[in-house]
Amino acid sequence: MSQVLSVTPSSQAESLISIRALSYRYYASSRYVLNNVNLEIQKGEVVVIAGKSGSGKSTLLRAINGLIPHQHSGDYSGKVIVDGLEVLSAKMSELATKVGYIFQNPENQIFMFSVERDIAFGLENLSFKTPDIREKVDWALNTLGIRDLALRAPHELSDGQKQRVAIAGSIIMGQKILIFDEPTSLLDPYTASNVIRIIKNLHDDLGITILIVEHRLDLVSQIANRIIVLDEGKIVFDGEPRQVMYSSNLSVHGVTEPTIIRTTKLLDPGATGPGKSYPLTTHELAHELRKQVPRIGVFQKGSHEFGTNR
Amino acid sequence: MLASAIFVVSLVSHIEVLIVLITFTIALTFAAKIVKRFGKSMTFFAPLALIAFLLNYYVFPVGLLTATNLALRLFAVIASSSLFFLTTTPDELEQVMRWFHLPPDLVMIFVIAVRFVPVLFLDALQIMDAQKSRGLEFEKGNLMKRLRNTIPLLVPLIAVAVNRSLELAEAMDSRAYGATKRPTSLYVLKYNFSDYFTTIAGIVMSSFGIYFALFGRLW
Ligand SMILES: Nc1ncnc2c1ncn2[C@@H]1O[C@H](COP(=O)(O)OP(=O)(O)O)[C@@H](O)[C@H]1O
Ligand SMILES: [Mg+2]
User: Fold this and answer.
1) Is B98 on the interface with A (CB under 8 A)?
2) Of B91, B171, B185, the CB nearest to A130
3) Which of A104, A110, A124 is nearest to A157 (CA)?
4) What CATH number is given to the structural domain containing A77?
5) Do B184 and A128 touch (CB under 8 A)?
6) Which of A78, A177, A272, B4 has CB atoms 3.0–4.6 Å from B202's, for a disulfide?
7) Count of pairs with CB atoms under 8 A, one residue in A, one in B
8) Mean pLDDT of the region A93-109
9) Interface predicted TM-score (ipTM)
10) CB contact, 8 Å: A131 with chain B?
11) What are phi and psi of A65, to 5 degrees?
12) Is residue A6 part of a domain?
């Protein structure tokens, strides 16, 4: 994957997102937030970016959609290429048609007075004709199942609904890449898992490449095919979820491991280490346990004794 | 569209014209089926006109006619602006602004200002609760003390608002804001019968207003 020496121009063009030796420091800030980041993301991937707060996750996302360097000034070195466009020289509005950005707080992402007007925002800015906007807005409303919210005002929406509106407004320009900055951190667990399901559908049905910043891996590890852990602006882990999560103790880097992973590590302290392949889902864990404890029915029989009633 | 009435009022001082104007405004509220809310709004604001009348008549040395006149003028302005704001949603107002080819940035400033009034209001309530729970008392003390007490509210509120505006700017840029000089719209503004009617009525009244202002009498 990282043959630095043998990158020919044709293999360069294959990555949907290509980040080479990116370092960035915010204006008037004393330290570099991103330190020599190298990253290639292929079309169709679902990548989770984890790491403690302040590790540079949002900064990395901004560098991909062009807010860095176009809106934030600072020291920028390295090269970021997104779908064939070099971020540094491309126009911000051109990048917006390639990458949809869903922010942590959807409240600040909905500006117009009605849902459908807000979803239309991007196309209006690009001067699309009214009938074309209408058609695409209807498509986005249906895709996210929010047809009946079309004429609502933003303040009439629940948090989960706001998040859907924000997503609809971010796929309207036909973006091939969607980036989510902690999309579930302001939501209750039920709404959060709904949003994660929507994200999975966008990937499966529309073939959109997804990047999600999350430090709670419970929800996202099952839809991800890759996990990247950032610490102090450097990539410390990058690989398949199973591989990354069993390769070491991620809590050191401020990442909350899924309960399944922690349970497995407790049951089998040897589970940490390179090259191991351990369960990732409840089903897989149950399967493993049944293999090792044939008569697991004992839990069912006496379960009331373990219950909460003293 | 009815805002042209305000224009008439500022020019004309003849009681006859004002009465026609007020009658017309009230007739329009019936047509727009907003009599109830119009009434509410008027009972809230109309006493202003009464106060103006009393003030003018008793405090300042003006005649009964002039005082009535001024009060009616004020009443007409209040009535027509109530009508305007009760019939026009912010969304329509935004479309009208675009229709007049105002600069897109200016339109967006208006949209965001109106859109975020309730949001900032909730922010303010939240900050007040937070400060109260730390023992700050907003309702106590004399005027000076109360004024000083708003500082712990205003400072965080400004911080919150600035933060929001930075996030807004990022979100707008991420959705191709400013890509073209002339953004289009999901809706096209269509003139229907009632719009033509009120526009023509507005123009007729404004012309009469100008005529009266210039010549004082109709004939
Ligand atoms: N607009 C900004 N100006 C200056 N410094 C910033 C700005 N945004 C973030 N930072 C700093 O950059 C570092 C990384 O921030 P960020 O990328 O937001 O981290 P994360 O998303 O992982 O929590 C933090 O130390 C933060 O204080
Ligand atoms: Mg962040």
Assistant:
1) no
2) B185
3) A110
4) 3.40.50.300
5) yes
6) B4
7) 108
8) 93
9) 0.82
10) no
11) -95, 0
12) no
